[in-house]
């Protein structure tokens, strides 16, 4: 049936999701694979021949030297290994640049806030996965609709610039974090400002 990967750095949340999924669709799920770190998730992703659905949290602290910064980067790696699998994000993040990165780079089938999690929601999201329909919380869906209409084109470097800028890193200091020249960073930042300003006046 279905092999489901659940990734969250809190073990009790993984256990809670397993319980909710069992209650929602007990006959549709064959196996649960739980991971509480990026490294553990990578091992499962590499070892398992088939994963049908993967649940990711966005905040995933690193324990080793992996280059991935968060659950979005992990989901991008997962897609490269399991391109036919469906992806679910469940997060407490509400920052525009974080939600935009997840939607634009991953295009998850489901994207909801942890505040919306209950057994009824899990039943609905599983139904949406079976019907190939997106299932998003409101703030995520607003950005999803905007990206579909705007046809934006940003890459991983652009989102690193967005993230670092939101952390207070100055433009001239970005060269210490990225393999790009200052002029290349300035051009990218100018393009990002033009792109994101189209969403309800958001700016950087």
Describe this structure in words.
The structure is a single chain. The chain has about 200 residues and is α/β, with parallel strands linked by helices. Helix content is about 50%, strand content about 15%. The protein contains eight helices and six strands. Strands 2-1-3-4-5-6 form a six-stranded parallel sheet, sandwiched between helices. α3 links the parallel β3 and β4. α4 runs antiparallel to α7. The longest helix is centred in the C-terminal third of the chain and has 15 residues. It starts with a strand and ends in an 8-residue tail after the last helix. The model has no long low-confidence stretch (mean pLDDT about 90).
